[in-house]
Specification:
Shape of chain B: globular
Structural class of chain B: mainly alpha
Order of helices and strands of chain B: HHHHHHHEHHEHHHHHHHH
Helix content of chain B: 55-70%
Low-confidence stretches of chain B: none
Largest sheet of chain B: 2 strands, antiparallel
Strand content of chain A: 15-25%
Number of domains of chain A: 2
Low-confidence stretches of chain A: none
Radius of gyration of chain B: 21 Å
Largest sheet of chain A: 5 strands, mixed
Oligomer: heterodimer
Largest interface: A-B, 67 and 43 residues
């Protein structure tokens, strides 16, 4: 069964200390229900969901509390029963640290659920109907990006999906929620994968798992043989950061490179995360929407590091307190991993669908200051996108946003390898994010001004056209008048002919009048009678109704 | 609870510029030790003088430019420039020549262009070329090996108190092997005749071949430590070997063999320590090969047909000028790039 499988590699990458064992020492345990849940309407890429509940309304677990708004959007469900206490702007976990619209749910602890509708035989379901179910379950990519999964399960009418790649690499240090999920629920993951294969009509699936997760590998392997699945291949890959990057993983497993400005679908590959597969299993086989997820709580700032099943919307401070709290000296809180995660300034924000890890660290306060770049190229040697980070930095530093695109800024996946090795301690990724945002803002502005200019030009054109049309009408009218005038002078002969004809008619009439009538030679008596009649007629006509 | 604001990536491998510079300095030690062994304390005087001048100039420039002094001064970059310059300049260069070259390197070539990381030209080579053009007569005074001068005699030599030494300066100095080949050829001698002179050793200049070997060892250690790439040294030495080999093959009487070119003058020092200066070298893998091949080519051309005793400094500066263009046209293929 285990055939030697050819693996590929990508440029650069890092061997990082894993720190994963500290959070996989205990089972993920029962879900914790906090007093209140803060549910941001936007937990995915795309349009925020639209509230479907009113303040004061009681909701049951699994009930839709916000509808998907547009195609690239998913609904939001109540993670447990309780009362909607507010719909307002709240701090949400986001690098911007800005507030976003959230539904606040005061839980009642009863955890009553609405009736679920499991699908017993998804194979009979049309792929598009299956996708709709997955969408209705609010499922987004749980690996971190949070793109609505149903879209990534839609290959479109033209494309054939050769392979479904399942990302079980989990390459960032500290994060172990996927590892634990694979150890605890390998069967669910595999069945979720089979549902995905059906939705994509993809016959083959490869699971790529880094070789630092032997327990998870064993569990999946055992489940594959137990379930007797022959369309899923489990492949161990070397632990190199960032192998878990979608494009990097596909390269390692298939040798194919997704085009730099395209999607894996362009090369016939679709990639999903293991946790997403498990949530799709729950959505289809159990009818259960995405209302909780496995989250890693770890770092030297945490008393009791572990993986824990957490309800979406659980405030992080309450959750950490429930798990034993912080170690003294903690000063950094990161959502996600230490390489790509973002800093949280406060722990009073909720866990959302894309939160895979909460990392609390006790770090020295003083960081060495950044010194100038010496162009040593250490960053270039580790860049998994094969970019020239030193040149990108130079252009970003100089705000040369045209030139920086010559150096393929937008192929940067912000993995942080360059920052990790930079001897000048330059926060390189920050510069690239800055340049990207500036370029996006410039493009937005340009689009706007283009639109305005187009509108203005269109208006000018329209006015000009109207003016021309008016002038044309005037010209036509004048021409018509002139034509009439000239016609009347030219057709005198016709007029004479008509006059002559009329005269002839008149003559004829006169002649006719001169013909003998029976009233010509009347007697006096006869004339008198006629006069009387005429008189009566006249009277009658004068007083008709009398 | 509130937390510190940090940015990703939160991890770092603890590399820093200071450590890089320090390791490069350590890698120079074998070559310097052999230098002292063959030519006495002279080089140490040059190094000390250059280092002192560089540190003073660096401090003053940082003050004038209102930059933090301690972090920049302790990054070893000024010291590295000074040491490389001292190694490149003639052993018997007078003290003021060293000072002028160093001042030019630090003040003009480094700080007036924006300081560490911003200078387009290799500071040490700028300093070298300035004194080479301005004071050519002093640039040919190289100590002969094995003179056994005392430290005091050496100091006196550097401060031009030749009378104190008790022997004529001419008797202890000579041109470099590379220079004497050029002079010899202009006198219609053959390479074989020229090489019979006592300043030549087995494969290069007497003593110089060993010093070059010391730099080679240090350089290989730098490659092993991944502080420099293999591209620049391999390409520079390779291009010299290929070109010199072709000419030598074609006319051995008038063109020295490749080993003389490699093991004489500052070829090995330049290949591993000067051309590899990351700030002024090309930064792409392919670009580094082109850049260093260019240095090798120009070095050979200037050595053979130019008017100066050695051509490395000019070759480095010429290629420094080409770096932005080289870098732009040698971008590696980006992941997932199609076409081109």
């Amino acid at each position: 069964m285990t055939m030697p499988y050819k693996l590929w590699s990508f440029h650069g990458g890092l061997h990082l200390p894993g720190h994963k064992d500290i959070s996989t020492q205990q089972p993920s345990g029962a879900v914790f229900i906090p007093r209140r849940l803060v549910l941001p309407l936007q937990q995915h890429i795309g349009e925020p969901a639209e509230p479907a509940v009113k303040i004061g309304e009681r909701v049951l677990g699994g009930q839709i509390i916000a509808y998907a708004n547009g195609y690239v959007s998913v609904p939001l469900h109540a993670p447990t029963s309780g009362t909607i206490s507010d719909i307002s702007e709240q701090k949400a976990p986001h690098p911007s640290n800005l507030k976003t619209r959230c539904i606040i749910l005061e839980t009642d602890g009863k955890d009553e659920w609405c009736e679920l509708e499991p699908i017993s035989n998804y194979q009979k379901l049309d792929p598009s109907a299956l996708r709709n179910r997955i969408r209705d379950a609010g499922i987004v990519g749980l690996g971190g990006a949070g793109f609505p999964s149903f879209i990534k399960l839609n290959p479109g009418s033209r494309t054939v999906v050769d392979q479904l790649v399942i990302n079980a690499a989990e390459c960032e240090p500290y994060i172990s929620c996927d590892d634990q999920l694979m150890r605890e629920q390998p069967g669910e993951i595999l069945q979720g994968i089979q549902i995905m294969q059906h939705a994509l009509q993809a016959r083959l699936c490869i699971i790529g798992i880094e070789d630092n997760k032997p327990e998870a590998y064993k569990a999946l392997q055992q489940a594959i043989s137990e379930l007797n699945i022959d369309t899923i291949q489990l492949i161990r890959i070397p632990t190199i950061y960032p192998t878990g990057g979608e494009k990097q993983l596909i390269k390692v497993l298939t040798g194919k490179e997704s085009p730099s400005n395209g999607l894996p679908l362009d090369i016939g590959v679709v990639c999903h995360n293991v946790a997403t597969a498990a949530s799709i299993y729950a959505a289809i086989n159990l009818g259960k929407p995405l209302v909780s997820r496995l989250v890693t709580l770890t770092g030297d700032g945490i008393k009791n590091p572990r993986n824990h099943q957490v309800l979406i919307g659980t405030p992080i401070d309450e959750w950490i307190k429930h798990n034993g709290g912080y170690e003294p000296g903690v000063n950094q809180l990161i959502m996600g991993g230490p390489m790509m995660g973002f800093n949280l300034e406060t722990d009073q924000v909720p866990i959302i669908k894309t939160s895979n890890c909460i990392l609390a660290l006790c770090e020295p306060e003083t960081h060495p200051p950044a010194v100038p770049c010496i162009r040593c190229g250490a960053c270039m040697d580790v860049c998994p996108a094969n970019l020239l980070p030193q040149q990108l930095y130079w252009q970003a530093f100089a705000s040369d946003f045209d030139k920086i695109q010559d150096y393929n800024l937008f192929d940067c996946i912000e993995c942080g390898c360059c920052s990790y090795v930079c001897p000048s301690q330059i926060p390189l990724v920050q510069y690239y994010r800055f340049a990207k945002t500036e370029i996006w803002a410039m493009e937005r502005d340009k689009r706007k001004s283009d639109q305005a200019r187009q509108r203005h030009e269109f208006r000018l054109e329209r006015l000009e056209k109207e003016k021309q049309e008016r002038a044309e009408r005037m010209r036509k009218k004048k021409a018509a008048l002139n034509a009439n005038k000239s016609a009347s002078s030219k057709d005198d002969s016709k007029k004479q002919a008509i006059e002559a004809a009329l005269a002839r008619v008149r003559d004829k009439k006169k002649q006719a009048n001169t013909e003998i009538r029976n009233t010509d030679n009347l007697t006096a008596d006869q004339q008198k009678k006629i006069d009387e009649i005429e008189f009566r007629r006249q009277q009658n006509s004068e007083n008709p109704k009398t | 609870m509130k937390f510190t604001k940090v940015t990703s990536a939160n991890l770092h491998n603890n590399a820093n510029v200071t450590r890089v510079m320090r390791e490069v300095l350590f890698a120079l030690i074998p070559g310097i030790v052999l230098y002292v062994y063959f030519f006495g304390w002279s080089i140490m005087i040059n190094i000390s003088l250059a280092t002192l001048t560089a540190l003073c100039a660096e401090t003053i420039m940082l003050m004038l430019r209102k930059r933090p002094i301690v972090p920049f001064l302790s990054d070893y970059s000024a010291i590295l420039t000074a040491v490389l310059l001292a190694l490149a300049l003639p052993t018997l260069a007078p003290w003021w020549l060293i000072v002028i070259a160093t001042l030019f390197a630090i003040v003009i070539a480094k700080h007036l262009y924006g300081g560490l990381g911003y200078n387009p030209f290799n500071p040490a080579m700028v300093g070298y070329v300035v004194v080479m053009i301005s004071f050519p007569q002093y640039m040919t005074q190289w100590l002969l090996p094995d003179q056994n001068l005392s430290l005091m005699q050496t100091i006196a030599l550097h401060f031009q108190q030749a009378s104190y030494i008790g022997l004529p300066v001419d008797s202890i100095t000579s041109a470099t092997p590379i220079d004497s080949i050029k002079t010899g050829l202009s006198l219609d001698k053959t390479i074989a005749d020229i090489r019979s002179a006592p300043i030549f050793g087995e494969i290069g200049g007497l003593g110089w071949e060993w010093i070059g070997g010391g730099f080679l060892v240090g350089g290989l250690w730098l490659i092993f430590r991944k502080l420099i790439g293999w591209q620049i040294p391999v390409s520079m030495l390779g291009s010299i070997i290929v070109i010199a080999g072709l000419f030598n093959l074609f006319d051995p009487a008038h063109y020295a063999d490749p080993l003389i070119h490699i093991f004489s003058g500052g070829t090995l020092l330049a290949a591993f320590f000067i051309a590899t200066d990351p700030v002024t070298a090309s930064t792409t893998p392919k670009g580094r090969i082109i850049y260093a091949a260019g240095i090798g080519l120009f070095t050979y051309i200037i050595r053979n047909w130019g008017g100066y005793p050695d051509g490395i400094a000019f070759a480095v500066l010429l290629m420094n000028m080409a770096v932005p263009t080289i870098d732009y046209y040698t971008q590696p293929r980006v992941f997932g790039a199609t076409g081109k």
